[in-house]
Amino acid sequence: MLQQTSEVGKLFSRRCLARRTLKRKQPQLQQALAGRVTEAQRWVLGQLLDQYDQSEAALTRVEERIRQEVESSPDPFVPEAVKLLDTIPGVGETVAQIIVAEIGVDMERFPTDHHLASGAGMCPGNNESAGKRKSGKTSKGSRYLRAALGQAAWAASHQKGTYLAAQYKRLVKRMGKKKALVAVGYSILIIVYHVLQKRVPYQDLGGDYFERRNVSTQRQRLIRQLEALGVKVTVEEVKEAA
């Protein structure tokens, strides 16, 4: 019995079914599965694993067919567009394919990047009356595009040293996770617009972008605080070492 259940644990490990922290605990996982598992339970596990393999094989076939469609597109820019979008943090090949399928590659159809975001339903509503905001919901758009951008935003928010990750950390404190992810998804779509319009890879602004942008503001604020304490401040720029 122990030998058979141990084989189940090894099977789970070989097929990479462990997720997150369990990936680092393969021996413990195998040991945990080496308990009292009946013959019927082993049969059910085998059936579930067979379904998993079939789903993975079907997914692989679909991905390959999509790649073939991209490569054989009448527009020669489509394959390049997918590769360019893949340079954006959080946007992998699949998300890039969905974006191209939903909005195309010709950005001349949109007067501005805001028009693209509005048509995609990524712009929050602006319903105000007497100075009071009534709704902040986004408008309707392609649910497939919104889902892809949400997936990309989540992936980008967990990367280190990027502008999008810094933006998420900056917004999540006052907006919450859901609204912050929508904002990051909006930023990704704006980036998509300019990448496709200029046909160049994405150039990241860096994880310290907001700190660098706010240096002047912080400097003035600190000067005012010191002057309020009766201190006369003379500012001199420090030259960077050669």
The topology string of helices and strands comes to: HHHHHHEEHHHHH
Number of helices: 11
Q: Kindly, what is the distance between the CA atoms of the first and last residues, rounded to a whole number of angstroms?
A: 71 Å
* Radius of gyration, CA atoms, in whole angstroms: 25 Å
Strand order of the largest sheet: 1-2
Portion of residues in beta strands equals: under 5%
Helix content: 55-70%
Overview of this protein structure:
It contains 11 helices and 2 strands. The chain has helices at residues 2-14, 26-33, 39-71, 77-85, 93-103, 113-119, 143-157, 163-175, 177-198, 209-213, 215-228; strands at residues 127-129, 132-135. The chain folds into 2 domains: 1-72, no CATH class; 79-204, no CATH class. The chain is mostly helical and 242 residues long. A hairpin with a 2-residue loop joins strand 1 and strand 2 (132-135). A two-stranded antiparallel ribbon has the order 1-2.
Layout: helices, strands, pairs:
Elements: H1 2-14, H2 26-33, H3 39-71, H4 77-85, H5 93-103, H6 113-119, E1 127-129, E2 132-135, H7 143-157, H8 163-175, H9 177-198, H10 209-213, H11 215-228
Antiparallel strand pairs: 1-2
Keywords:
2 strands, single chain, 242 residues, 2 domains, two-stranded antiparallel sheet, mainly alpha
